[in-house]
Amino acid sequence: MISRAERTPFSEWWWTIDKPLLFSLAALMVGGIVLSLAASPAVADRLNLDLFHFVNRQVMFLIPTVLLTLGISFLDPRKVRRLALGAYLIFFPLMIFALFFGPEIKGAHRWIQIGPLGVQPSEFVKPSFIVLAAWLFAEGTRRDDVPGHLLAMTLFGATIGVLILQPDFGQTMLIGVVWGCLFFLAGLRWIWMIGLGGLGVGGVFLAYEALPHVRARFGKFLNPETGENFQTERAFESFVSGGWFGKGPGEGTVKRILPDAHTDFIFAVTGEEFGIIFCLILLSLFAFVVLRGLWHALNEDEPFVRLAIAGLTMLFGLQSAINMAVNVQLMPAKGMTLPFISYGGSSLISLALGMGMLLALTRRRPRARLVEGFPGAVPAGQFS
Hints:
The chain is mainly α. It has one domain. The protein is 67% helix and 2% strand. Helix 6 (148-165) runs antiparallel to helix 7 and helix 7 packs antiparallel against helix 8. It is globular and about 60 Å long.
């Protein structure tokens, strides 16, 4: 039992961390291993790999994920800002490097090869970009001498510019939506919000006209009778096949024919083998993380912390929603992973970065109020 009277870094962390949020994220990590055991052996066998190749690698990446998440959660808001800045300064140049020197995979240059490991720098740019944008919006709102809004727009333009060139339409859309929400929360007027929405729609139309793979995905989604929606159609059928309670672990068939059963369509494998009820439980777990984060943002007084919590929460929630929507044919295929559930080293480590910062920012921080006439009183916010 950890005493509240102890004044050690661990005891202070334990009594200030949001334990329901922490345990929910831990449950998702464990669920990712269990569902990887169900979905990935069939994919590994089809690729002539060891049956537990992807499971072993998922566990290997999960160990640093846990350590990084917990380590970052010890930071205070100032150090979170510094971490975000450092991560952005490292991985944004790597995004540019991947654009020119990275291998071409499915027509895009998003990866760099570091020895035997492939790294997708944009995964790490996402959470760091959101925190930096929140910081700039907060400073622009708080101080007249800082052009925070203009700097946030410049940062956004540079980031999505590289993503568009890779091209990575899904990540561009995800970052654009979250950034727009942060701009609105920072006090953007409705007329500007409508203008940004119009630019977003124009960007989607431009991507449709200029990028063949985007046009193909929209075409397949809008005209399912063409028979070219193989993965999404099989994924949707898996939910019907599994019913409410599923066929049982290892009894699914969709994973034997879906190329991305262990990544983009692991939610479909979950539906077939564990049933719709289990999928709803998993959905509730994601929803709890999102609602818990937004509750913290609603009750936070410090502008930067409020915006950063809201941004990181929306980033996590939108990515989860997009993946699940694709699996049930509510959206065109995006190639976006289900957080902590889908296989992927870059995805896991980047989630550790984002969720570690979220846990750090949602910790209870002491605030001493200035009491009139009390000598030595500490102004409010000094400990924030």
